[in-house]
């Protein structure tokens, strides 16, 4: 006779990518859907601002990125705290539920204020969903494959962004800017919510298991830290954590520039919607695909070198975009920009996981992501003001200089090797 379900032994909690492959793979799929939900906007919204709503000032048209960045940054911090207190899965599900009205607001919004409101809601959703998938993968794999795990996570997310940016460019070219591109986003949200509710399992016990055997070289990295102490360490006091946080902010500063102004720059040069869609997709596609290698290689070779080289590569790519005027030159530049970002993105997350103790790692990841996604807001303001005063190429050049300077900060401030090769 089959024993009652209550008599069956619970699944053993074990760490490792191979040991948790089914759940890890499911979370990769979920994060691809999270990325696709963001990707529905990458090609279409900048053109919607100018062509349908007639916004002439770049500072006005970039308000949706400002709203998104502020909301996502604040929610990242909250997500880490909630995940430590209530568990990872409830936070993930809440993020998908909050995303439900976003496609409707984008499709039916009669004024630009509705679009900004949609991005405020989207930022909250992305802060909860993307942050939680990051933390859950860190929980599952343990300390030895963290870079590989972050590479897979971020690759899935940004390949989702890229594929959707390409698809929405095609849909916009054939069926108009609304509603067709945003129906794709609605499908992603429904599927992501269903998978998260029905198939994703809680991973907080994996973090507790890792904490019992956590070895650290830092006297402050024990588990009994307040939220204020974790914020101070991640933002300012710890050399590696603070260097990583500022690099993340500058990275997303230039991503906000790419999201908001590149399609407008390309359209002004006479490129077709199809060409703009290719350029909008190539950057996150290269970024996403190469993270499969860069995250794993940083486990072997260390984090610092990848971060410094990636920031300098991004700066060089932005310089080429500022100087460019043709589809071919811009394609080379966005591929280079994607490669530089791939070197940085999973490595920054893995470096946070290396230093932060498992019992406050979710909070530290949330604080890092607060600074990182605050870069969207800073980028919207800086690039918008400079573009209005001096043109888009000047804004790109300014952001290129900031990106190079950020790489210099990492070179000087970050410790060479932390824990598992960081």
Automatic annotation (TrEMBL):
Keywords: Cell membrane, Membrane, Transmembrane, Transmembrane helix, Transport
A Pfam family this chain is assigned to: MFS_1
Predominant subcellular localization, coarse grouping: membrane
GO cellular component terms, A-Z: plasma membrane
Intracellular or extracellular location(s): Cell membrane
Topology versus the membrane: Multi-pass membrane protein
Molecular functions (GO terms): transmembrane transporter activity
Name of the protein described by the UniProt record: MFS transporter
Originating species: Kocuria turfanensis
């Amino acid at each position: 006779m089959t024993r009652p379900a209550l008599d069956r032994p619970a699944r053993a909690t074990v760490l490792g990518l191979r040991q948790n492959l089914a759940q890890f793979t499911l979370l990769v799929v979920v994060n691809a859907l999270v990325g696709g939900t963001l990707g529905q906007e990458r090609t279409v919204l900048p053109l919607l601002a100018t062509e349908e709503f007639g916004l002439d000032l770049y500072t006005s048209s970039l308000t949706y990125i400002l709203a998104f960045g502020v909301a996502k940054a604040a929610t990242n911090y909250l997500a880490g705290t909630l995940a430590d207190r209530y568990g990872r899965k409830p936070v993930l599900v809440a993020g998908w539920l909050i995303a439900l009205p976003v496609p409707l607001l984008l499709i039916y919004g009669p004024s630009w204020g509705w679009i900004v409101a949609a991005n405020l809601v989207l930022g909250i959703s992305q802060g909860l969903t993307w942050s939680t998938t990051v933390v859950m993968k860190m929980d599952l794999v343990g300390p030895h494959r963290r870079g590989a795990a972050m590479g897979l996570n971020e690759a899935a997310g940004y390949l989702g962004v890229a594929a959707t940016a390409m698809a929405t460019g095609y849909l916009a070219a054939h069926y108009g800017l609304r509603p067709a591109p945003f129906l794709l986003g609605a499908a992603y949200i429904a599927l992501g919510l269903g998978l998260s509710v029905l198939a994703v399992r809680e991973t907080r016990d994996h973090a507790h298991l890792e904490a019992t055997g956590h070895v650290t070289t830092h006297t402050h990295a024990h588990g009994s830290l307040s939220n204020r102490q974790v914020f101070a360490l991640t933002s300012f006091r710890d050399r590696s954590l603070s260097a990583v946080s500022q690099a993340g902010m500058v990275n997303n500063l230039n991503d906000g520039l790419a999201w908001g102004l590149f399609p407008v720059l390309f359209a002004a040069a006479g490129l077709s919607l199809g060409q703009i869609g290719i350029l909008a997709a190539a950057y996150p596609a290269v970024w996403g695909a190469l993270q499969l290698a860069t995250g794993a290689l940083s486990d072997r070779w260390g984090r610092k070198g990848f971060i410094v080289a990636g920031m300098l590569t991004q700066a060089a790519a932005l310089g080429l975009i500022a100087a460019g005027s043709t589809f071919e030159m811009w394609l080379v530049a966005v591929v280079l920009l994607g490669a530089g970002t791939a070197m940085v993105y999973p490595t920054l997350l893995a470096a946070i996981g290396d230093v932060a103790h498992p019992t406050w790692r979710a909070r530290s990841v949330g604080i890092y992501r607060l600074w990182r996604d605050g870069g969207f807001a800073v980028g919207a303001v800086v690039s918008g003001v400079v573009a209005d005063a001096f043109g888009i190429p000047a804004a790109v050049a300014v952001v290129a200089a900031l990106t190079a300077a950020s790489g210099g900060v990492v070179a000087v401030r970050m410790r060479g090797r932390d824990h598992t090769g960081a």
